[in-house]
């Protein structure tokens, strides 16, 4: 301590120490011994070569405190050693660290009637495929201090069977006996009992209902919207101009009793938001930020998860629900309206819509030099007519009869699905693949011919059905939201 005070008084450092050393060997020896001791205690031995510079207990105490603040969690116990068992076998061990995927990730739960609920989430795909867990649902009800609870076996749907990645989508249908869950005045909780890999069970509160938060009429009254669009997750550097064209086109087509649910998985950057905003302000668009789902590796930014959430969230709000992408445009032949088409398909729970694949490169000679200002449906007029075994499809459903949904169709519903030959003359969708996630004008080749064959013998024919609608959509946009989007960027 003496040395310490002395060192501090004179300012410490190498020079003073050396002076002290030459004046008094004994003192210096003591000094060095103490210093070494301190250094050893403080495990500063590594700095021994810098003895003079580090001659100060401060360096040690700082080191010590730094050590305690950055202390990492204790290492896991060493794996047990192999041992010889009584029967002569060598006992081997398996030592797990961390976990590859969650057993269940809850996205949402919705009441789907007086006695039924759906729970939507993700689950480890190998766990679902190989362990095939089954779930139970518990409904807890507290009504005038009369508590009751009921447990049922859940009905599990895996709507993306075959498509999942690390995670697969699980839709859990909890349906209780008739007199159990049907008291709106009760405070209630829906609990999902989800088995996990190691034999344990997680009890997850999926839904809490305050008193009178629902009414039986919710499930039988006429829906608010005729048509509701459930989008796919949007990500990447999307073109604001393409989004502008798509939303104007479909608001016009779907009409005033329609609504659009758009999922932002990172694609709704500020310029795209600007394009959606006027339609959000008019109440046509709901934007949901689902960027968080990127943490969980599922098929196509968890598209199956989001469409199932959309189905159940808006199930009683719309007569028809449509599922397609923002590079796809629903097309009805002249003289037909969406209402006349859906009315004629009323008896079906689902109808599929056939794709019309369009070239994203071939444009008209007369448009050359002007295409950057033209809308996609205007300038891309060559239809791919190559024969394929099966054309891609998108679809629409009457959601009240649907329990889970997919990307190209639903397989979990009550009722009939219209066959393709019923709908082919009524409704189609034009697909402009690869036009939405690029900020460039995709026109690359300019033609006059009414038909052509490109590259690997893919035949194209001119199709101006959509081109003819473009001016009507532009006028609709102008009449509805004014000039606010006129200078939107590609
Ligand atoms: C659950 O399944 C039953 C039977 O298929 C169905 O009646 C009910 O509507 C479904 N519930 C939900 C919330 O989808
Ligand atoms: C409590 O609830 C049960 C089941 O819902 C019912 O049968 C019973 O009559 C209720 N008791 C009272 C005191 O309300
Ligand atoms: C297309 O027609 C224009 C006149 O409209 C003509 O100038 C041009 O040469 C033609 N191009 C081709 C590739 O036939």
Automatic annotation (TrEMBL):
Metal-binding among keywords: no
TM spans (from-to): 31-51
GO MF terms, alphabetically ordered: glycosyltransferase activity
InterPro entries from the UniProt entry: Glyco_transf_92
Pfam families xrefs: Glyco_transf_92
Taxonomy, superkingdom: Eukaryota
Keywords assigned: Glycosyltransferase, Membrane, Transferase, Transmembrane, Transmembrane helix
GO cellular component, one term: membrane
Record carries keyword Chaperone: no
Subcellular location: Membrane
Protein topology in the membrane: Single-pass membrane protein
Enzyme Commission number: 2.4.1.-
Enzyme class label: transferase
The family this protein is said to belong to: Belongs to the glycosyltransferase 92 family.
Record's protein name: Glycosyltransferase family 92 protein
């Amino acid at each position: 301590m003496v040395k310490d005070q002395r060192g501090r008084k004179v300012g410490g450092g190498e020079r003073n120490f050396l002076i002290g050393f030459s004046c008094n060997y004994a003192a210096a020896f003591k000094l060095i011994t103490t210093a070494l001791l301190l250094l050893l205690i403080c495990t500063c031995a590594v700095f021994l070569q810098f003895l003079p510079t580090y001659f100060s207990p401060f360096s040690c105490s700082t080191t010590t405190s730094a050590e305690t603040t950055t202390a990492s969690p204790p290492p896991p116990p060493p794996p047990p050693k192999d041992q010889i068992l009584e029967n002569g076998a060598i006992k081997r061990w398996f030592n797990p660290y961390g976990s590859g995927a969650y057993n269940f990730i809850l996205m949402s739960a919705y009441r789907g009637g007086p006695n039924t609920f759906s729970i939507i989430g993700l689950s480890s795909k190998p766990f679902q495929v190989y362990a095939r867990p089954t779930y139970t649902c518990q409904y807890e009800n507290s009504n005038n201090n009369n508590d009751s609870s009921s447990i049922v076996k859940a009905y599990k749907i895996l709507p993306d069977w075959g498509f999942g990645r690390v995670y697969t989508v699980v839709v859990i249908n909890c349906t209780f006996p008739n007199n159990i869950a049907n008291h709106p005045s009760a405070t209630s909780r829906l609990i999902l009992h989800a088995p996990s890999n190691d034999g344990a069970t997680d009890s997850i509160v999926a839904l809490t209902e305050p008193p009178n938060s629902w009414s039986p009429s919710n499930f039988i009254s006429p829906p608010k919207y005729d048509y509701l669009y459930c989008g796919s997750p949007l990500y990447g550097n999307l073109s604001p101009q393409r989004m502008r064209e798509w939303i104007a086109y479909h608001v016009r087509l779907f009409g005033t009793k329609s609504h659009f649910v758009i999922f932002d998985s990172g694609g709704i950057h500020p310029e795209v938001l600007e394009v959606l905003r006027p339609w959000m302000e008019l109440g046509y668009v709901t934007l949901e930020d689902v960027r968080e789902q990127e943490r969980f590796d599922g098929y196509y930014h968890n598209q199956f998860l989001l469409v199932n959430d959309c189905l159940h969230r808006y199930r009683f709000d719309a007569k028809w629900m449509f599922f397609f992408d923002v590079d796809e445009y629903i097309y009805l032949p002249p003289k037909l309206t969406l209402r006349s088409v859906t009315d004629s398909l009323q008896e079906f729970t689902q109808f599929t819509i056939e794709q019309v694949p369009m070239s994203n490169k071939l444009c008209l000679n007369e448009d050359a030099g002007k295409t950057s200002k033209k809308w996609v449906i205007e300038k891309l007029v060559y239809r791919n007519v190559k024969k394929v075994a099966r054309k891609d499809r998108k679809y629409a459903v009457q959601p009240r009869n649907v329990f889970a949904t997919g990307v190209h169709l639903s397989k979990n519903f009550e009722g009939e699905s219209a066959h393709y030959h019923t709908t082919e003359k009524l409704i189609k969708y034009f697909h402009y693949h690869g036009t939405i996630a690029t900020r460039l004008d995709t026109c690359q080749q300019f033609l006059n011919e009414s038909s052509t064959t490109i590259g690997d013998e893919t035949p194209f024919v001119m199709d101006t059905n959509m081109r003819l609608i473009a001016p009507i959509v532009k006028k609709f946009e102008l009449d509805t939201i004014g000039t606010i989007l006129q200078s939107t960027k590609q």
